[in-house]
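Hey, can you fold this one?
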Amino acid sequence: MQTVIITGAAGGMGAAIAHAFAQEGHDLILCDLNAAPLADLAKVLEGRATIDIVAGDVTAADYPARIVAALGARKIGALVHAAGVSPSMADGNRVFAINFIATTRLVEKLLPHMAPGGAAILIASNSGQIIARPLFDNALKKVINGGSSLILKLMLRNSRMAYPMSKRAVQLYAKAMSPAFGKVGARIVSLSPGIIDTSMGRLEQRAGPEMDKMIAVTPLGRMGEPREIASVVVFLASPGASYINGTDILVDGGTVAGIEAVGGPLKL
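Sure. Predicted structure:
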């Protein structure tokens, strides 16, 4: 079994993903901000997988190198990047730094260590698809290519706009990086959950009426569960998904479709 790296492993989705991969017997490198929750998770998974822990701030310049050190001579079968923050957790610049800038640094550092047939799965959000427009996409592509964008700087003044912009950037980045992954025989995709029943999802639900409005127009009529994201992640990392590359996988119970059906987000 190859090594699976999971960032944000102590969160609701991250922990569910760790359980799913441990069930398959993979070696795990669990990453998150604080060591104590990671140690608790490792104890629960003990006996099902060989586990290493890397605690620290994902935005720190040396954090990817610390993961590489924990990896050693092993190859990465799957990188699942679930670390991130929601609009209520930080200001706009910090949201973008954690959700996108740290993603690029991590992916590019770990790319040379990917196993042939391996996959990077970047957890984005359906909010990225909701705001997808040529104006925003062109601005984000400039940033992805090392430039700057006045439009993005303006959007980062508000964490509730910075969040979907950061997640749209992840979706576009996965597409842009697919040729580089293909050269080493690996794949990269983004996975965009809808509203998931985690502590982060409940925090945003309490922050305002928007989440309840989105649930109301979701065809399945409910939040998703972390295990429903984990099962898709495991599939995307498996040989069964060997021809899925450079795209976004929407796992949101139909929320984006429901929003479009009522005339767009301004009609909620």
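The mean pLDDT is 95. Let me know if you want another pass with a different chain boundary.
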